[in-house]
Amino acid sequence: MVQRSRLSTSTLLTCAAIGVAAGVVQAGAGALSGPVSAGLPIVYGLVLGVHVLPGVVAQDLLRKPWVALITHLIAALVASAVVPLWIGRYIGTALLIGGLQEGIAALGRYRRWEPWRFFLSAVIVGVVVAVPIWFATDATRFPLWAQIVYIALFIIGPVLWTAAGLAIAAALRRAGVPRQGRG
């Protein structure tokens, strides 16, 4: 007897579609990250914040366990197909951010889907990402005002991309995605 999966084929296909779209966006952000880091490093957090997008859209649209992590990993594979050299970065970021999003949703037993939960998740992701990048980029080289803006944008970036993700999920829901079926 075949054991029934917790995630339906429809759910997995929806995760795949979101992941492909988000992976293309992430590859574009990856292309921008070099010039932004070199020319205007203070706003890098806005670019890096795009990595919350696949998990936000998947969780808000599907409201099921594991969809953020699955969608993040698919997005990472798509972005890696565009920039194979960065596969480690994309997979690592997917595991980190997707894992954080899943963990925060699990704390509410996958029953809390109000917008504040997504924004709280975005702030936590922003802080967790900002701390190691602060040290890796030696942000103390900036004047104090720029250090404050630099860190703030690592938190504001994921918050703005979360707002975009919630808007995308709402639009998909109005369009009839996902269809509610069995499993």
UniProtKB/TrEMBL annotation:
Regions crossing the membrane: 37-58, 65-87, 93-110, 117-136, 148-172
Domain of life: Bacteria
Coiled-coil portions: none
Keywords: Membrane, Transmembrane, Transmembrane helix
Name this polypeptide is given: Acyl esterase
Organism: Microbacterium pumilum
Organism lineage string: Bacteria, Bacillati, Actinomycetota, Actinomycetes, Micrococcales
